[in-house]
Write a structure and sequence with these properties.
Layout (H helix, E strand, L loop, with lengths): L1 E5 L4 H12 L3 E6 L8 E2 L17 E4 L11 H23 L7 E5 L31 H17 L6 E7 L1 E3 L6 H10 L12 E2 L1 E3 H13 L5 E5 L5 E2 H12 L9 H10 L5 H4 L7 H5 L9 H10 L1
Parallel strand pairs: 1-2, 1-4, 2-3, 4-5, 5-6, 6-10, 7-9
Antiparallel strand pairs: 8-11
This protein binds NADP nicotinamide-adenine-dinucleotide phosphate (NAP).
């Protein structure tokens, strides 16, 4: 297969590029600043010579978007929105203009689209889309809006010959430097891997190999379209998630942090506490219904595997 990865230079792109190349597929990455041989330049907004990479390819997985690990200033929020919507539109236009459009367009979305929730696990059928939850910071609604507009850009693209799936992915756990697992592991090693703000908030996650396997599964299953949750079936509260990671890393202590301490830490790391404090309880209803089996259902075995690698 020929697979094109717009925005494939980041953490998830690295995971996919490695796995798909090892499986014998031809992978082309679109980047605003290509540094590797074979990568193709695009600007993530306008049509250009890059569009011919999509003509005749089999699958596009659009991963482009400004990193969400930043201070949520008005300018950064705007960039998070525009980079996602504009790149999805550009991919849609390129597919619409292709003489031989790809069979499948997988568009990255996010599990953050669902409401902050402790008690209810969200699947695609009955899950509640966020944005109107009481008692959470008002600006959290903007992340949900980004996700909705991102998915809308794919839905509205006029690409009748291309199957479209939106990947509502939870945190993708891979050992890559700078990825979320790397950051959490470093906190654990520093003794800071304890509960944050009580740690009741759920962490949804997916092991990188299951992420790749889900992409392969969705490629093969021509009957599946629309939003699909890519999350392990057993999300867990942040305090338990970190306890398991501490055990896997053999670090006995993890200092608890209050919400105020989390605010300070996020400020120091130029990040935002929504990433730590929003309760993401998301389950893979459609994947399980379709017969997908996870290699890593439980965080215990996934964490051991990731630490070992
Ligand atoms: N990592 C996760 O656990 C996770 C979970 C759920 C959803 N997601 C979403 O999945 C996508 C990929 O995740 P990732 O962790 O691989 O992200 P990442 O490491 O931040 O990589 C995303 C890529 O997007 C490109 N990009 C950045 N700003 C852009 C802009 N203004 N316009 C166009 N392209 C831009 C960059 O490529 P160039 O600089 O080479 O152009 C970058 O390498 C992201 O949209 C992310 O929000 C990630």
């Amino acid at each position: 297969m020929k697979v094109v990865l717009p925005g494939g230079t980041g953490q998830v792109g690295g995971v996919l590029r490695r796995a798909l190349t090892a499986a014998g597929h031809e992978v082309t990455v679109l980047s605003r600043r290509p540094t590797r041989a074979g990568d193709v330049e695009w600007d993530g907004r306008t049509q250009g010579p890059w569009a011919k990479e999509l003509d005749g390819c089999d699958v596009v997985v659009n991963l482009a978007g400004r990193s969400v690990s930043c201070r949520y200033t008005p300018a950064n929020l705007r960039a998070m929105m525009d980079s996602r919507v504009d790149s999805a539109r550009a991919v849609g236009e390129a597919i619409a203009g292709a003489a031989r459009p790809p069979a499948l367009w997988l568009q990255m979305s996010t599990a953050t689209i669902y409401a902050h929730s402790y008690d209810t696990a969200h699947d695609e059928a009955s899950g509640v889309i966020g944005g109107t939850e009481p008692g959470v910071p008002a600006y959290w609604a903007y992340s949900v809006r980004i996700a909705r507009e991102w998915e809308r850009a794919q839905e509205e693209a006029d690409t009748p010959d291309t199957r479209k799936v939106a990947l509502r992915a939870a945190m993708v756990m891979s050992p890559d430097r700078g990825g979320v697992f790397d950051v959490l592991s470093r906190m654990v090693r520093l003794g800071l891997g304890g509960p944050v703000a009580g740690g009741r908030q759920y962490m949804s996650w997916i092991h990188d190999r299951d992420f790749v396997r889900a992409v392969e599964f969705l490629t093969a299953r021509e009957d599946l379209t629309g939003p699909v949750n890519l999350a392990a079936p057993q999300p867990l509260p942040q305090r338990d998630f970190m306890r398991v990671l501490r055990r896997a890393r053999r670090v006995p202590v993890g200092l608890p942090a209050t919400r105020a301490m989390a605010e300070l830490g996020a400020f120091a790391l130029r990040s935002d506490t929504e990433l730590l404090l929003k309760s993401r309880r998301v389950v893979p209803g459609r994947l399980l219904d379709a017969g997908f089996s996870f290699a890593h259902e439980r965080w215990e075995t996934a964490a051991r595997d990731l630490v070992g690698r």
